[in-house]
Amino acid sequence: MKFLSTRGKSIAKNAGEAIAKGLASDGGLFVPETFPNIKADLKDLLTKDYFERASFVIGKFLEEYDSKELEDACKKAYSQFEDNDAAPVVKIDDNLFILELFHGPTLAFKDIALTLLPHLLRKGSDMSGIKEEILILVATSGDTGKAALSGFCNKQGIKIMVFYPSDGVSDMQKLQMTTQEGDNVNVVGVKGNFDDCQTAVKKIFSDEKFNALLKEQNVVLSSANSINFGRLVPQVAYYFSAYLDLVASNEIKLGDKVNFVVPTGNFGNILAGYYAYRMGLPVEKFICASNSNNVLTEFFANGNYDKNREFFKTASPSMDILVSSNLERLLFELSDRDYALTEKRMAELKNNGKYSISDKELKKAGQNFYADYCDEEECFEEINSFFDEYGYVLDPHTAVAECVAKKYINYSKSKLPTIILSTASPYKFPQNVYKAIEGKNITDAFTATEKLHEISALDIPKQILELKNKKPRFTHVEDKDNLSKCVLDFIKKD
Ligand SMILES: *Cc1c(COP(=O)(O)O)cnc(C)c1O
User: Fold this and answer.
1) Which of 366, 415, 417, 487 is deepest in the core (most CB within 10 A)?
2) CB of 264 closer than 6 A to ligand 1?
3) 141 alpha carbon to ligand 1 midpoint, in Å?
4) Catalytic annotation, pick one of 9, 39, 48, 110
5) Closest Cα partner for 167 from 68, 69, 311, 313?
6) Nearest-angstrom CA–CA distance, 438 and 108
7) pLDDT means per 10 residues in the chain (494 residues)?
């Protein structure tokens, strides 16, 4: 299957090339030429394991990949998750379910794609005849960085460099990244927020001179952010799997509709859900949940995207984003795949920080999406009351989603099953989660971890316990305008 750039001036001959390149050379994002419909296959998938469901869904887009190898790679990737299940669904109440996506090596949903991406990228670069060393540049709001470092650590022919906002991630998230082992990795703190990191990285990607310079060093760039189709496609699978689990446990009948609620930052996760819908998954609404950085809430309400607003640092740092990159892929679909219009809007975003869609497009968006947000006070209150009511500990991102789910049900009176995507372990944010439940401030992350364990009896993941004895390897903090120099220094090191 061919992959098209949302901006129309670049094309990839297959998924392998789209994944190896990461970003299209015209600055656009690669999208599949068509969405294969798998509605008729759902029945067969009912009895399958997660890795089989995943390789089936992924294989629909990655037609040129060897399907046996793909299935083996999925099996290997998802065996790194607790109980070999990458995406278990937990029933909380009548019609309320939590899809737990955080049981992987780094305790966030990013693991679902990033445990598999090394395979997809390796095969993709072989398919596209890339002989150079691949340097993966990652901008992270906290979780992608560690998941990518873990996935690509010591992988032959690949180097990886992560940029994170030095004051914009949780203590645990920072420690996870700065203590990363491996000879092919580098981690740099950036004086700025996630948007600064993402903008700088995107700029490096489209800097032809710089890329030529890298090529002289036998290096080409790729991306492990959700701008890379290889990040999105494994995420499409868990929407199907969650749905199938509800069918298999007789909560719904095949063909019934459900709602998914997604805590959203860069719009990657929720877009993967929309792709699942386009492939035939029966979904009523995707509910886009934001924190106080509610640029998407406004967009879905009135069709105006405007990043010129105050930036808030919140308890859900992985959603502290004002430029949601993957929205470009949705704009492309809403405009009936109008390249020129998509390009124009992205230019407006770059130049003025804003753009608008037409009433017709807004109406179309409203058929599949509903958006709302949850402020800091509501988020803490949600963690507290949810623990009271169900004895279940929500991480702050999932709490934002649950809070918005309530608002949606209240507004729509929907009686459909609601599936909340839980994107991180609460132990990545122990101080805030403990504070929400007990009302007490604890500054040290490991003390808060133990306290949270005491009150909740929730097992502390070994990945968190191991962190306590590790020393940070990467302490460098850099100005946001200086990242290309960091890249060169890293490459020249050996
Ligand atoms: C990355 C992340 C999000 C946001 O996901 P997007 O795909 O960027 O919308 C939400 N919660 C957590 C915990 C994350 O790590």
Assistant:
1) 487
2) yes
3) 8
4) 110
5) 313
6) 24
7) 97 97 93 98 97 98 97 98 94 97 97 97 94 95 96 96 96 97 96 93 92 94 94 98 98 98 97 98 98 98 98 96 96 98 97 98 98 98 98 98 98 97 98 98 98 97 95 95 94 74
